[in-house]
Amino acid sequence: MWRRCVDHWPLLPVLLLFLLLSGTENVPTAGAAPQPVPVRSQLIVPAAGSYRLPVIQPGPRGMVLDSDGRDMPLERYITGRVTLLSFMYTYCTDATACPALFSTLNALRERLLNAPALAHRVRLVSMSFDPANDTPEAMKNYGGELARPSQSLRWHFLTSRSVERLQPILDELGQSTSVQLDNLGRPTRLYYHQVKLFLFDQQGRVREIYSPAFLQPELIYRDIQTLLLEAGTAQTHAAVPADRRRQAQ
Amino acid sequence: MKFLPVASLCLSVLLACPVRADETCNSPYMANLIKGQEDYVHVWTLGIKGIGDGRDKLVTIDVNPASPKYGKVINSLSVQGHGDAHHVGFTEDRKYLWAGRLEDSKIFVFDVGTDPAHPKLVKTIDNVPAKTGFVGPHTFYALPGRMLVGFLSNPRDKGGATGIAVYNNKGDVVASYPNPTGKIGDVQGDGYGYDVAINPARNAMLTSSFTGYDNYRTDLDKLIKDPAAMQKFGNTMVLWDFKAMQPLQIFSTPGAPLEVRWSQSPGDNWAITATALTSKLWLVRPDANGRWQARDVGPIGDPASTPLPVDMSIRADGKGLWVNTFMDGKTRLFDLSNPEAPRQVYEKVTGKHVNMISQSWDGKRLYITTSLLEHWDLGNDDHFIKLYHWDGHELSEQWKIDFYKEKLGRPHHMKFSAKPAPNVASLR
Lengths: 249, 428
Fold this sequence. Notes:
A: about 250 residues, alpha+beta, Glutaredoxin, 8 helices, 10 strands, about 35% helix, B: about 425 residues, four-stranded antiparallel beta sheet, 6 helices, about 45% strand, globular
C-alpha cells in the first residue's frame, strides 16, 4: 500500500517564495514583542513567538551510528539545539521525496547562516532508512562539506547498525516505510516511505511534523524562531529568582 | 484492479494535482489516496435497539466489481454499547480509522491498514470530555502524526459552545482550542462547532457550526416545536491561522453551516459550505483586497420547504458539488465552474431520506447512506447504503444493502480502503 512518495504538494512555488523572502527577516530576540508580519502573499504567516507549538510527543530513544561509525545515542542529536530531522536514503531519486526534503533543509540552512545568532542554536539531521547500503562512510560522502564539524550550523548524517536498531525509532515517530519487491518477491533497493520532517525543541520533544503539504519554508523558519524565543524566555525566566519574578509581576 | 503503487508511480501527475479531498473529502495531509477502484467501503453504523445486537459497529463492504463478494457485507465489528455513532477519519498514513460517537463522546480507533477486509479495534478513548473540555467528537481530520478533532458541544451546559482538540496518533491529547465567543471585527462569535477543513497552501483553516448536545440528542419533532431550542444553532464560520491556531475572522453565515470543502483545483483559493437550516451555499474566498469574505451564492432547492442539506462531496477538479438533502431524499449536483454562481444541473430522489455521500476520485461512483442522527432520523426503516454510477448525465443504482434487513443498524459515515499492494513488504 505504500508508495515512494506521498502527499505531494507543489513545492516549487513555495521554494521560490522562500528564496524571495530569504535574507529579509528581522531576527527577533528573546523577550522582544512579536512584530506583526506583513502578508506578502495569500499565505497566512504568524509572527514568530506569537504562537505556541504544543508538544506532540517525546522524542525517540535509541542508538545510531555517526558518520565516523561510532555508536551514539540518538538523544545526543535531538537535544540541546532546535533540531530538524528527516529520514532519507542516499540513492533516492524521487525528486519529490528525499531530494525535495534535502533542498528544503539546505535552503533553510542558507537562510539560518545569514542569522548567526540563530544558526548556532539549530542543527539539521539526516538519518538513513537503509543501514545495509547507507554505511557511515556512504553518509559522510553524501553529506560532503555540509557534514564537516567546522560548519557553523551542524548537519549530521546518521545511519544505524541494523534494522533492529532503526525500526523502533521509526515506529516511535510514526515514520512508515516499506521495501519494494521485484517480480520474484525479492527485496529491491527501493523504499516506499512517507515524506516527513520532524522539528524537535531543545529538550528533544517533537513540536511539529511537516509533510509535503506542510513544507512551507517560511512557516518552518517561524517555527524555529518561535522555539528559540520560547527557550530564550525560559532561560531568562529561570535566571530571575522567583521572588523577584513575583515583584516584577 | 489498479493498486495504489501504480498510481504512485505517476509522480509527475501527483505533483501537478495536489490531493486535498474525498476520495474526495479526506484531509490534504493524508497519504495514499485511492485514485483507482476502491476495494472496500467501511461504514460507521449506529446501533439501534432491536436491530441485531443493537451495538454501534464498523461494517465493511466489498465493493470491487471483480470480487465474488461484490456489493456484500464481508465484516461487521461491533463495539461496546451504542452512542450515536457519527463520523470517522483516517490517520495520515491511512493505517487507522478514528470513529466517534456523539452521545458518550467515545472515540474508537480501528486498524484498517493491516487487513482492511477485517478491521480490528485497537484502542478506545473514553475520557474525551475530561481531557479536552469538549463533548461530541465530530470531525476527524488527519495531520502528520496527529488527529485534529472538531467537537459539537461542551460538558458544562451541553450547549453549542465548543472547540477543537489535537490528539497525537498514540491517542494522547496534545492541545485544545475553544472556538471564539468574542467579537472579531463586527461579527460576534457564537463558539459553536462542526466541521474543520484546512488549506495548507494558505495556512488557512475554516470551521463551521451546528448545535449542542441538548439539541442533537432531542427528537427532531420535539425540537422544531421549541422556539428557544431552535435559536441555539450556529450561525458563523471562522477563519483560523492554522499554524498558530488563532481565529482571524468570523463570518456571519446564518442557519448552521455544516460541511466545509476547499476546492482541490491547483491555484484555487476558495471553499464552499451549505447552511442546513437556511438551505444555501456559501462561498469563502479572499476579495480583491485580500480580505476573506463569506458570501451567500445561491439556494439549495426551495429553502422555504427546508430540504436540509446535510453532506456534500466536491469533485476532484473542484468543478462540481454533490449535495444530499435529508428531508426530501434528493441527491443534487451543482456546477461549480463559476463558484460565485453555483448552478444545479441534476437531481434524483435516492431514498426516503439521505445523508452521507462519498464519491470515488474519478467521480464515477457515488455511495449514499441514510442516517443523520439517532434522534433526528425520520420515522421509517429506509436505512441503506447504495452505490450509484454517474455517467455524466444520470445516476444509475448498482446495488443496495438494506441495513435493517441485515440487522446492522443505521449507516452513517463511509470511508474507502484498498487491499495492500502485492509488491511491497515491511521494512525487512
